[in-house]
Design a protein that fits this description.
With about 375 residues, this protein is α/β, with parallel strands linked by helices. Helices cover about 40% and strands about 15% of the residues. The strands form three sheets. It has an eight-stranded parallel barrel with strand order 4-5-6-7-8-9-10-11, surrounded by six helices. Strands 1-12 form a two-stranded antiparallel sheet. It has a two-stranded antiparallel sheet with strand order 2-3. Helix 4 runs parallel beside helix 5. It is globular.
């Protein structure tokens, strides 16, 4: 069994085809953002306290009322069957075993209901704003009926950015894998192979509604009683608008380096967002999490929890549900070790005094 996330990554790469690996790992434009979050986290160093009783440590927390074994969840990613035949069902099973939250993509390759049946932990549903509001409303209501606990609206993708690897490969979703929760006619463009073009980008231009504004959130909130979380917030100004429009959560995210090239890295944006929100909604950091120490750093910056993305797919490609569980267990065990060595027996003990930030770019 791999001992580090990087070992899972190397083994997953051996198991996946080159076009699928490029789709999962690639970024937009120059791909400058693929390493931006990692660099930002690496600039942060920890300030441990000694002679603290850490004989009993408790990494548990809650997020929008959902109990978690640690401040850790899985970010939304489409088409888990690209990594393993069981797809999101295997991921949900592993997340439940680890006590982690799983955010299911609207473009999941297993049904919302099958995923919920396999889950023993909390589930959220991620949405892109489609031109078909009927389809959007149907998905939201299905999620609520199946026991999902929140809706996550991705707001940093009015369209999909140019991703050179996908264009070069003429990437399209392979036969036998599809977004089973969305009308097949609406997903047709994602399956059409055209050399030199990304079917994913073509599909987004066809189906995503780039005209929505803050005022449109009221309509989405009317469709269910679920709390609303916005993913892709990077500025204090938008964080303040999240609070104004009643958002219960914010995911500070660069979309895995797949959208705006040359943006500020999500960890660098976190302090101004935390200050703007001032405790009025939950804040999650998504991007670059590769070690339990990154969880600690994120909490010190003011986040309530972190989401991990690609590593979950590395684990899935490695050994299905067991691999995802291994990834989550590794991160949780590393976080527990950091709790002991930092003199921080609970997540609440990670405060701004626990880190030193160097060479952080100005807002």
């Amino acid at each position: 069994m791999p001992l580090t996330l990087r070992e899972y990554e190397a083994m997953a790469r051996e198991r996946l085809s080159a076009p699928v690996w490029d789709f999962l790992e690639g970024g937009s434009g120059t791909e400058s953002m693929l390493s931006a979050g990692r660099r930002a986290l690496d600039r942060i160093t920890l300030r441990p306290r000694c002679l603290v009783d850490v004989s009993h440590r408790d990494p548990r927390t809650t997020l929008l009322g959902a109990p978690l074994a640690a401040p850790l969840g899985i970010a939304p990613m489409a088409y888990h069957q690209l990594a393993h035949p069981e797809g999101e069902v295997a991921t949900a099973r592993a997340a439940g075993e680890a006590g982690a939250l799983f955010t299911v993509s609207m473009f999941a390759s297993r049904s919302l209901e099958d995923i919920a049946a396999a889950a023993s932990g909390p589930l959220w549903l991620q949405l892109y704003w489609l031109k078909s509001r009927e389809q959007l409303a149907t998905l939201a209501r299905r999620a609520e009926a199946a026991g999902y606990r929140a809706l996550v609206l991705t707001v940093d993708a009015p369209s999909v950015a140019h991703r050179p690897r996908d264009a070069r490969n003429g990437f399209s979703i392979p036969p036998g894998i599809r977004a089973v929760n969305v009308d097949p006619a609406m997903m047709a463009a994602s399956h059409g192979h055209t050399p030199g073009q990304s079917a994913i980008a073509r599909h987004s231009k066809e189906q995503f509604d780039s005209s929505i504004t803050w005022e449109d959130l009221a309509w989405l909130r009317e469709q269910t009683s679920l709390p609303l979380v916005l993913k892709g917030i990077l500025t204090a100004e938008d964080a303040e608008l999240c609070v104004k429009y009643g958002t219960e959560g914010i995911i500070v995210s660069n979309h895995g380096g797949r959208q705006l090239d040359f943006a500020r890295a999500a960890p660098d944006c976190l302090p101004e967002i935390v200050e703007a929100v001032s405790g009025r909604c939950s804040i999650i950091l998504d991007g670059g999490i590769r070690h339990g120490a990154d969880i600690a750093k994120s909490l010190c910056l003011g986040a309530d929890a972190v989401f991990v993305g690609r590593p979950a797919l590395w684990g899935l490609a490695h050994s299905g549900s067991d691999g995802v569980a291994g990834i989550l267990q590794r991160l949780t065990e590393e976080f527990d070790e950091v709790m002991a060595l930092m003199g921080a027996p609970t997540p609440a003990d990670f405060t701004s005094s626990g880190i030193f930030r160097s060479a952080i770019s100005a807002p």
